[in-house]
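tool=predict chain=A
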Amino acid sequence: MSRWRWFRIGLAVLVASLVFYGGFELGRARSGFSIVDSILERLVQRREVGRLRVENESLQHRVAAAEIGQRVDRQAQSETQRMIGDLQAETSRQQQELQFYRGLVARQFGAGTLRVQELKIRREEDRRYLVLITLVQAAARDSVANGTVSLAIDGTRGGALIQLPLAEVEVNKRRELPFSLRFFQQVEVSIELPEEFQPASLLVEYRQGRGAEPARQIFTWRVEGEPETPVL
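tool=predict ok
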C-alpha cells in the first residue's frame, strides 16, 4: 500500500474524529453546556483553591504563633513566680538576720540606746584633722533618731590645761552637726588645731531633739597610723 493511500486514510480518520467531536460539542451546547464556560469555571475554582490554601497557611501560622505565645506566657509566669518566691525567701532571711543583729546590739548596749560606737581621727594636713564619729542605735523597732552632735578637745597649751569647743576648731565654725539615723551613721567633722596646742582627749556630746539632755562620751586623742603622744 502506497504512502498516498495511508495519508488519505489518516486524513479521513482525522476528519471523522473532528466531525464526531464537533457533533459531541454541538450536542453539549444544545443541552446548555459551554466548553468556554467550563474552562473559565475551572480557572475560577483553581484561583479559589489557591486563595483558600494561602488563607489556611496564614491561619496555621497564627495558631502556631498563638501556641508559642502561650508557652512563653506560661514560662514567664513560672519564672515570675519563682523570682517572687526567691525574693520572699531572701526578705525573710534578711529579716531574721536583722532581728539577730538587733538582739546582739541590744544585749551589748541596751534596747533603744543611742551611743558613739567608734571614733577615728585622721590627719589631713599639718594641723588639720578629720574626726569620724560613728553613732549607733539599738532600736527594737525601725524608729529614726534625729538630733545633733558636738565635741570639745581637751589638751594643753603653754603648760596650761584648756578645752577647745567645736566652734573654735571646726573649719566652718559650726557649734554642732545634725544626724538622722535608724541604725547607724558616721558623722565627719573637719577640725584645725591652733599652734602649740597638744590634744589629749575628745569629749563627744550628742542629744536627740532640742531641749533634751545631752549624752557624753570621752575618747583618747589617737591619730590613725601615728603613735600615741603621751600627755605630760
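Residues 46 and 152 are 102 Å apart (CA to CA). DSSP finds three helices and eight strands in the chain.
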